[in-house]
Amino acid sequence: MTAKTSAQxxxxxxxxxAKKRNIKTKASASKRGSLSFARPRKGDPExxxxxxxxxxxxxxxxxxxxxxxxxxxxCLESGSNTAIAAPRGTGxxxxxxxxxxxxxxxxxxxxxxxxxxxxxxxxxxxxxxSGELCHNPRLHRDYMKATAVFKACRGQANRLAxxxxxxxxxxxxxxxxxxxxxxxxxxxxxxxxxxxxxxRGLNYAAIDGSVIRPSLAVVDDPxxxxxxxxxxxxxxxxxxxxxxxxxxxxxxxxxPIIMPxxxxxxxxxxxxxxxxxxxxxxxxxxxxxWPTGWDNKKSVARGLWDEWNGIRQEDEKGKLALxxxxxxxxxxxxxxxxxxxxxxxxxRGQPDAFYAAILDWYTMGDESFAAERQNAxxxxxxxxxxxxxxxxxxxxxxxxxxxxxxxxxxRVAATDINWSYGLTWGILAFGQDQTGAVLGYGVHEMxxxxxATEAETAKAIYEAFVVHxxxxxxxACSPEVWMIDASGTPFDTxxxxxxxxxxxxxxxATPATGRGWKHYRPYGKxxxxxxxxxxxxxxxxxxxxxxxxxxxxxxxxxxxxxxxxVGAPGSCSLPAGNHREFADQICREQLAGKSMVGPQMVWNxxxxxxxxxxxxxxxxxxxxxxxxxxxxxxxxxxxxxRSTRARSTGPILI
Length: 654
Description:
With 654 residues, the chain is of the alpha/beta class. The protein has three domains: 39-283, Rossmann fold (3-Layer(aba) Sandwich); 287-372, no CATH class; 395-590 and 608-627, Nucleotidyltransferase, domain 5, CATH 3.30.420. Helices cover 39% and strands 19% of the residues. It is built from 22 helices and 25 strands. A nine-stranded mixed sheet has the order 20-21-22-19-18-15-16-17-23, sandwiched between helices. The protein has an eight-stranded mixed sheet with strand order 5-6-7-2-10-11-1-12. Strands 3-4 form a two-stranded antiparallel ribbon. The longest helix is centred in the first third of the chain and has 30 residues, at 3-32.
């Protein structure tokens, strides 16, 4: 190879290397963002986080983040202890790690420390701070005095220790193992230790030999699920926070503590400090306000969401559920507000935060969502009748499905409507003392396609009623009283069918609308005749009549029936067979308590996600029996046709 060729080759190699370096530089600049931005106004932590840590906060902040930031600054300025409960999955730890760096570089506190629950979170925090101090060009530009040595060391702790300025050590350290990062020239430090990892011993030696102790502690999520469920472990953790964490500043100093947390169980570590008289507390839920009428499952919004959930469960690709939501979004989200509008997974097809929040409620269950997303856990074991699916499944008599017991005086059927999947029905036999027995139950499948017109929907429901009614009439245990839920949109269709049900099916169907304690009123011009036990006949201006009934009252009576032994007065029983789904649906709505508020009785229910139509049918059947004369007082109306002969219809599909 000639000298000329060698020189040309070296030139090309140098050119390629330079080009490669330029590519890396451009990529790095693109990743970190342009440096041509105005420095945020002093005292604006939200703007500071977005400007200096854009990779950590790619989405706009929501109310939950603004509340955490505001409480953090208040805690610093006032020196008070603060607990702020925020939904799991909102990036509390990232916000806190960014705020701690902000407070240190802005010289708001000299030695802030983060106390997470486990070692993994501790290492993650230390890596975050060291990465920003060593590799963030925006911080290097505006906080050169604090970050120049970190930039020069390129993240290597040994190299940092050997760097000097004017021949003297800077005092900077990257003590990841020890849990402390020390800024040069005594500008401060930042540290982390786990709750169970001797946080009291977290300190560092300054250049002059003095021992510097923490000035602010951030206890980040002070528990795991196992701890929250154990009273002993909760007490032990509280003792560590009150002793070791509070004592980190030394015996003669008081250090403020801020605690971002998520409530897991009633009475856990988070709730202890959220309800402590010496602590400020803020609770932020994922859902700030629920859709209008959410607590009333017969409301327009709740009905649409339940129907959407039924479509979603049967729609593997999710397109039908999304289309349904897009069509009915205005009604489904009316009155709804969330704490973070950017909290949804667009990659999975979620259109917005409303959709994502209600999806979480259905998939997580009411108890988990109330605790981890709303920070308002439901207390377990406090349902009024302590009912569960095993108890209901144990109430099995020696009768086979469809067999009418000898003591029966009345047979009542109840049908609940959910047009996304079908008509849920049940038939009960009642004795003179209100003893009940389930004769059969099931679902008459039907489906109204998304996008169907109002007329098409009404036609599909009407035709399903005709087929369903003829099936009930064909049974040897056919009902003498048939109640149909007329609440909500199908009201007109139900009334029209009931007016012709004898001619179409051979059974007189009766429309009924359930009303909770807030809305049930057995008086006024619309009431016809004398009300019966928590139900009465209603008439509108067009002369149409239907039964209005107190749904809370009769749901309680229907649930209370399962607490009695088989055959006892007022009890209820099942025929032989497997009834797990039936029992599960009944237990998804349970009475947590009731009390007199002024002159009115108030019911409080715990509702779990999922279908509870069989529970609705049970309540409606008990009301139907009372309408026909068999109520809680055990009286039988003279109009009821008695049937004392035990009848067997053979097996009924259950």
